[in-house]
Amino acid sequence: MKKRKVEVVVISDIHLGTFGCHAKELLHYLSSIKPKILVLNGDIIDIWQFRKSYFPSNHLNVIKKIISMSTKGTKVYYLTGNHDEFLRKFTDLHLGNINLLNKLVLNLDDKKAWIFHGDVFDASIQHAKWLAKLGGWGYDMLILINRFLNWILVKLNKGPYSLSKKIKDNVKSAVKFITNFENVCIELAIEKNYDYVICGHIHEPKIAFIENEKGKTVYLNSGDWIENLTALEYNNKKWKLYHYSESELITDEEDMQFEYENKLAEQFISVLKQH
To answer: Over 90: is that where the pLDDT of 70 sits?
Structure first.
């Protein structure tokens, strides 16, 4: 299968190491594209909830796939988030085509894209980290319950249902938090004259053109790979939201190609260890 060429891809909130992560689906997506630039916009590895007893091969394969893509010419920017904030002590690290940063500005066709995870605007994380971690655990459990519920719904020939989306759409505090988060990002981007402001963190995929008396910008959020299974793609001066579809299947030939890429990644990791 021929890979789609994409100028820039932004993904965030994968949460590798948690039960809710859709690593298999993400692998399918990464195997279908050939981006010039891949931005991992925070919460890629969930260090908050990391447990030795749970890190399936599919989760490890996502990491191997990203390394493999970097060895084949893709420029990879890993921007730290709150769930992988441990990596912030190593930021401004550059290893081949892989760059570890806290934030990033990309020049795209004479326009500036300001990219960061967004947790710096979350007061619950800045002032009560233990509460945020407890919320993360509760969210993981909610996703597990939701998967079981959807399994039952499929057996009954009914469509899937999102508990977390229902909560976000109906709980006033959740709606207010998301709205405030987006407004802060937008106002700062306009103030700093950025054409695009790109975030993750709130698991709400979105593209919106915003204009006010102070200026204009485009707000983008890459969503997540827990519920929405979304990414942002930039091509031919345009952004679009990619939504993963269950109909996307990997062929045997693609599986063989991925195994080959895995071996390359393992060799790359081995060389790194020696240095």
So the answer is: yes
